[in-house]
Amino acid sequence: MSTRRNEEDDGRISLASAMSGILVLLIDEREARIKDEKAAVRIEVLLARAGMSTDEIAEVTGRSRDAVRMAVSRARARGKVPEAS
C-alpha cells in the first residue's frame, strides 16, 4: 500500500500537499491585491528567488512551464533572480 493511500485512509494529507495548498491561496490573495500595480514583482520571480524550480512554480501558479521559464529568464537577465546553481 502506498504512502498516499495510508494518508487518505487516516484522513491526513501530506505536508507537501498542505504547503502547496497554502501557497496557492497566498498567491491568489497577492494577485488580487496587486493586479493594477505595474511595478509589482511577478510571483514567478518571487518563487524563483525562494529556490523553487520552473516546474514547481508552474504547478502552484497554474501557469504554463514556458510562461514561467520566460518570466524567470527575463528577471535573471535584469539581475532580479540569481542564476540557478
Explained architecture:
By secondary structure, the protein is mainly α. It has one domain. 65% of the residues lie in helices and 0% in strands. It contains five helices and no strands. It has helices at residues 3-9, 15-34, 43-49, 54-61, 65-77. The N and C termini lie far apart (36 Å).
Brief rundown of the structure:
With 85 residues, the chain is an all-alpha fold. Helix content is 65%, strand content 0%.
Number of strands: 0
- Overall pLDDT confidence: 83
Shape: globular
Largest beta sheet, briefly?
Answer: none
Distance between the termini: 36 Å
Low-confidence stretches: 1-7
Helix content: 55-70%
Structure classification: mainly alpha
Number of helices: 5
Strand content: under 5%
- Rg, nearest Å: 16 Å
- Helix/strand order: HHHHH
Q: In total, how many domains does the architecture comprise?
A: 1
Layout: helices, strands, pairs:
Blueprint: H1 3-9, H2 15-34, H3 43-49, H4 54-61, H5 65-77
What distinguishing features does this structure have?
disordered N terminus, single chain, 65% helix, 0% strand
